Amino acid sequence: xxxxxxxxxxxxxxxxxxxxxxxxxxxxxxxxxxxxxxxxxxxxxxxxxxxxxxxxxxxxxxxxxxxxxxxxxxxxxxxxxxxxxxxxxxxxxxxxxxxxxxxxxxxxxxxxxxxxxxxxxxxxxxxxxxxxxxxxxxxxxxxxxxxxxxxxxxxxxxxxxxxxxxxxxxxxxxxxxxxxxxxxxxxxxxxxxxxxxxxxxxxxxxxxxxxxxxxxxxxxx
Length: 221
Fold this sequence. Notes:
Blueprint: E1 2-6, H1 10-22, E2 26-30, H2 33-42, E3 47-50, E4 53-54, E5 57-58, H3 59-68, E6 75-79, H4 84-93, E7 97-100, H5 105-120, E8 126-129, E9 132-135, E10 140-143, E11 146-149, H6 152-163, H7 171-178, H8 187-200, E12 206-211, E13 215-220
Helix pairs in contact: 6-8, 7-8
């Protein structure tokens, strides 16, 4: 998953980015709304983490503009304001969830998972295809009585494939989902990760197929 973090506290932002990257997510951080708009002009995001009081404006105006533009990207507001009226106002403006500073990072991660589940209409963190179960919480694959552990970026890449079995994803698209602007990576990295996933799926009812000149897709074995 690729996240956009809009937060002007450098210390807090660094901690959030580090924590989410450890989970295998790609995270772009911007301290201002102008920079956030610039990022969104060139990249698609699965989730936005939004502070309210920012150097160049109010995050509520950003949120309201996103919803008026019918942007489907979920937004979790992170702010020091804890009054019930503030929470109600932000939810009414279109926030998908709300987290008050200070917070436990485990709660932030759980809220991110919950919001993303709602986004795709899933009841839990499991996805299934061709007899293979992908458990995002446990970071593992299960099939034919086997359990296969996944590393973080392997998990995030499989989440893309399991979200749309049969759909062809280009290397460019997969790069966009897996890496942030600050990551130094080439399309060869996608080939490496796909190679690893094929080994993880050996003996399973699903496999990752190369569509020559176009990319990769998840298909029945």
